Structures are given as C-alpha cells and as structure tokens.
Amino acid sequence: MEEIQTMIEKVKFDIREGRREGEILQTLRPILDKEPEAAVRMIEELSALPSLEMARLLQQLLEVPCDKKIRKAIKRSLYRLKSKGIIVEEVSAGKEGPVFRPLQTEPPRGFGGPFDFLGRRFLVLVIPHAGKGLTVMQGIVGDTEGLVDFSGGEMTRKRFKPFFEEIQKGGPFSLIAMEPSYVGYLFAQANQLALDQGKSPLQEYIQLRKEVESIKKEYEQSPVYSMMETDEIEGDERVLNRGGDLLKTDLFGSWKIREEEIRPYANEVWEAEESKLVLNQPQKEARFQEIYQRALSDLFPEEKRSLYRRRMEDMAYYLFKSGREEEAKVSLAVAIDLKKAPNVIQPNPFLFQLVVKSIFALLSEAYEKKKEEFSLIKKP
How many whole angstroms separate alpha carbon 296 and alpha carbon 354? Predict the structure, then answer.
C-alpha cells in the first residue's frame, strides 16, 4: 500500500511539472501489468484530481491492453471527472494532437433529485446557445404518472447561478449533476407515458420539445451500470441483506406503500393482534409473517417489481453521484435482485421491509387514535 501511495504522489508531481502523459504511463506500466488490484485502487484515487491532464492520462491508460477490472475502473474514473466539470472530447484515432481537447462550445447540463415514495423526482435541463443565453427547463416526472409538471424558457448565464442556488435551497435534497442526454431521455419518456395514459400534453413541453429531443439519447438501462462494478455486487448476500436498512436513511425514510393498497393487510395484522383466540407469541409471529408474505406477493407482481428495480437503479445513481457509494451498492444490489423471480424463503429485503414498515405506520396511527378515544371516554 505504501508503494502505491508513493506512486500516486509521483504521478501527481509529474502532472504538476508538465511531464508528458506517455512518459508518466511508462512509470505506471509495472503496476498495470503485475498488480491489477493495486492498479484499480491507484486509478480510483488519481481520479479524485479534477484536471484535464488527469483525463488525458486516464484516456491513454484506456488504450493500453490491461485487466478487465482496470479498464472498468478507468471508465468509471473518466465518468467521475466529467461529472466534476472536466468537459473533454476524444480525438478520433490517427488524428494529430492530444487525446482529449476542451470543447469549444459550452455543453448542456443536467441535474436531478431522488425519487419520493410516489415515484416522482425533479429534473433540470440546461441547454446553452452560442452567442445567446440558456434554455433552462425544469419539471417533475413520475414513473407511474408520466410528466407531472414542466416549465422552461430563456435565461442569461448570469441569472442562472442564483436561480439554481435557489432551487437547491428550496428542496429537501440536493440535485446532483446527471448526464444531460439522460435527463432529456427521462423527460421524453415521461411525456410519452402521460400520452399513453390519455392525458393532454403539457403546452410548455410541446413548445420546448425540440430542445429536449436535440440532446436526448436512448438508454437501455440506467447510467449507474457504467459507473459501478456490478460483478462485485451481484450475488453478495451481505450487501443485499442491508437492503432493508435503506428505509432508515433520509432518502428512503418517507417511502411507503399507498394506504389504499396496504390497508387490507394492516387490518389483518390488527385483527390477529386483537383476536380473542388464545394465540401465544410464536403463533402470532407466524400469522404476521404469513400476512407480510401475502402482501409482498399480491402487491409486487412482475410489472411492479420492474418498476421498483428501475427506481432502485436510479437511486443508486443518485447515491453514487452524491458520494454515498456504500449505500449506492446496497441500492443497486436490491435492483439486481429484483431482476430475479421472487423467492418466498428469501424475499427481497427492501420490499419486505417496505411492506412491514407501511403496515406498522398505519397500525401506529390506529393505535394512537384508539388511545385518544379511550382517554376521552375516561374523562368525567
């Protein structure tokens, strides 16, 4: 580990001194060739330096034949640098000049927040125009409702900064930088979902649709899969089993199942608890477990599981971009598990705890109401 740290410091020094990337690469070759695990750690730490020189070095590393894990680490690191504002453009093979060069025009920017329990999230898309200002679009998209709200218009660059700061202050959670093409994709998908449900299109979206369409790309899966090492997550039961703990965190704390969906099962739990039949505690627990399992099966058919899988993938994306990488791993582990057929013996820990939490939230309300009524009866 000490040797790796020494190597990292040497690379940082060489970059500051203006040494050519090709020369620095030769210094790194022994580790790349012989110590892939150490090389991955070194690349991850080097990518913490947000500089164009580091991006160029990493791109040259990507051109060198090396271990699959190293290549994935390089790609993740390049993505992180881009998310930190190192806007670079790859030069095609055989073309003279540096591997990367700054873009001559300001690129689009995208931002987004986390999901709430309704499956909604807030998105911002900023598209600059050469010699003009910015087209700034904001909206709320729901994965079951489609495009809930949308507005936008022209704005000066000077005005955008305080505008964005105000947005950040106004929400419960910060917005993270997202791939603008992905934000465009999400807006377009949400609009189409609303139309498929027979809703009237939002007029402001119609007016700005061409702006969205100009930068959106098609995504077969969440961008999180290009950022995180799924081989280390899939099949790791220890990570997956922490899925239920996500519901104790700030981002998932408000998540619950809609009252009209969960109430029948909450009523059953209440009746089992209040039953006049003489049931010992183990018998009651067995009854509760049977209710939880049935709720899980009834409320999460394949379509609903796919919906939650996509939510958890993008929550992993949000967590990762927020610097909460351990929670991101757990969220992605939950998503990967939701691709599989349901397992009655080992249910998805996140969905199972979501059922239990939602039931007891209703029972807690009912208990408080009953206690209040009893208190009123006893008063003279």
Answer: 9
User: Is 205 in the same domain as 309?
Assistant: no
Q: Is residue 340 part of a domain?
A: yes
Q: Which domain holds residue 77?
A: 2-102
Q: Quick check: 239 and 333 in contact, CB under 8 A?
A: yes
List of E strands, the chain:
88-90, 100-102, 109-112, 120-128, 134-142, 146-155, 176-178
Q: Tell me, what DSSP letter sits at residue 243? A: G
Give me the residues paired with residue 149 across strands: 140
Q: Which of 220, 242, 263 is the last residue of a domain?
A: 220
Same domain, 184 and 238: no
> Element (H or E) spanning 277, and its range?
none
Select from 220, 240, 273 the last residue of a domain.
220
Q: Are 196 and 231 in contact (CB under 8 A)?
A: no
Cβ contacts of residue 319 below 8 Å, gap of 6+? 251, 325, 327, 328, 331
Q: Which band of pLDDT confidence, cut at 50, 70 and 90, is reported for residue 191? A: very high
Does position 369 have pLDDT exceeding 50, yes or no? yes
Say whether 270 sits in a helix, a strand or coil.
Answer: helix
* Same domain as 115, residue 93: no
Q: How far is CA 252 from CA 30, 117, 301, 304, in A?
A: 44, 8, 22, 18
Looking at the structure, tell me whether residues 255 and 198 fall in a common domain: no
Q: Across the strands, what pairs with 89?
A: 101
pTM: 0.71
Radius of gyration, CA atoms only, the chain: 25
Question: 115 and 206: one domain?
Answer: yes
